[in-house]
Amino acid sequence: MSNPAIIPFLDLITPHVELEHALTEVFHNALRSAGFVGGPMVEEFEKAFATFCDASCAVAVSSGTDALRFALMACGVKPGDVVVTVPHTFIATTEAISQAGALPEFVDIDERTYNMDPEKLRNYLEKQCTIDPSGRLISHRSGRPVTAVVPVHLYGQAANMDPILDLADRYGIFVIEDACQAHGAEYFSQKQGRWLKAGSIGKAAAFSFYPGKNLGACGEAGAATTNDQQIAARIKILRDHGQEKKYYHNIEGYNGRLDAIQAGLLQVKLAHLGDWNTLRRKRAADYNRLFANSDQSLTLPHEPSWSRAVYHLYVVRTDDREGMMAHLKNTGIGTGIHYPIPLHLQKAYSSLEYRCGDFPVCEKIAQQILSLPMFPQLTAEQQARVAEESLWFLKDPIISQKRTTDHSTALLS
Fold it and tell me: What is the reported pLDDT for 408?
């Protein structure tokens, strides 16, 4: 970072510089072996990532979207089915559902965790669906069979999985985790009496290794995890043009393979992921301490007793989100919004005919959420300034405008 007064929302440069020798050696090895797609580097990463997730299998693919799409298809989602998820997530969640041939339907989120509210899921299953004579669960909204639910472990925190799994079991549907932001997150299952890793809880799970994730590739990459060998085998066929061996195609599949170089880079970074996640948790605790006196003007992330979050994002809420965001920008502090428009109100899903007011919790928080700088290399001094500027704005937004102008002038000089 050339200007130390600038605090980026995300620093992707420092960790790559720190690991530059090991990362470039991966490229050199690929050049020497000409192994560019699949092969030993991919297989080694798959084994290591499955172990990290406490899962039996991991299948590396070209993106998190493909990971979720292939997981849904391999678990049995068919064209014409309904898959239930939340409207507060990145659109890749619902794209994967649609691309598997299914229809996304939504339930609202919990206002404190921002993840799927199990009671809203219960209400959907009990009051918005009917079991037909053949035993299928049918959605009143679409008249289609409901076959799966996709809870999203948003911002690096696991959804409340025990009640979701209980409901899914009761109604004969299966659970696929969207763990694209939750590499290493943990959930304490009262039912099992132990901590479970994201990616090991449902029938299968999807991870994204987009560069900004806790474990990020130097490009696009993803993986599906599962404890079912047959599901893993189906995903491997789906990612490779439907072939079990070269030129023998069991089904019509997809080109969803992972480049060997990306797998090698991820293998290098995976060795550091535990330490990076520990640093993210420490940074979140430091933010919580710095913002302890913000009264009711700032809502901090809520981490339930059953959660060990890995803080892919540190998301706060305030009524004057735009004002606070502008103030921080003008003082050299990067921020983000994840996500400003709920999926049910996106133009892309207008055909689903949802309306404003259908999911009030999601719609409310979408107007208030603001993601503050969060990355392992964030310093105590940087965090202190983020908190100072945020609290200054919250104390008196009008006075802060002059202070912001003065600070902006200093940054430009």
Answer: 52
Residues facing 189 on adjacent strands: 194
pLDDT-flagged residues of the chain (< 50): 1-2, 412-413
CATH of the domain at 93: 3.40.640.10
pLDDT the model gives residue 1: 40
Indicate the burial class of 84 (C-beta count within 10 angstroms; 0-12, 13-18, 19 or more). Answer: buried
In the prediction, which pLDDT does 54 show? 98
**Beta strand pairing call for 82-85 and 243-245:** unpaired
The last residue of one of the domains, among 219, 245, 269, is: 269
Residue 7 forms part of a structural domain: no
Select from 311, 287, 372 the least CA-distant residue to 336: 372
Give Cα separations from 24 to 14, 42, 268, 317, 381 (angstroms): 15, 17, 10, 40, 31
The pLDDT, as a whole number, for residue 5 is 85
In a domain? residue 21: yes
Half-sphere CA count of 163, side-chain side, radius 13 A = 13
Q: At what angle are helices 380-395 and 321-330 packed, to 10 degrees? A: 130
Which pLDDT value is given to residue 4?
67
Q: Are residues 260 and 370 in the same domain?
A: no
Q: What confidence score (pLDDT) does residue 413 get?
A: 47
Chain segment 274-290, per-residue pLDDT in tens: 999 999 999 999 999 99
Tokens found for residue 147:
């076959």
- Tokens coding 62: 């070209």
Same domain, 288 and 304: yes
For residue 194, give the 3-state DSSP assignment. strand
Same domain membership, residue 399 and residue 305 = yes
Using one digit for the tens of pLDDT, what is the confidence trace for 351-386? 999 999 999 999 999 999 999 999 999 999 999 999
Mean pLDDT of the chain: 95
Q: What residues contact residue 100 under an 8 Å CB cut-off, 6+ apart?
A: 69, 72, 73, 77, 79, 83
Is residue 209 located within the same domain as residue 239? yes
Q: Which amino acid is at 14?
A: T
Does 55 map to a domain? Answer: yes
Number of structural domains (the chain) is 2
Question: Which structural domain range is residue 257 located in?
Answer: 13-269
In the sheet that 186-189 helps form, which strands lie side by side, from edge to edge?
Answer: 194-197, 186-189, 307-308
Last residue of a domain, one of 238, 269, 300: 269
Task: Note the helical H segments in 1-88.
Answer: 13-18, 20-33, 40-52, 64-75
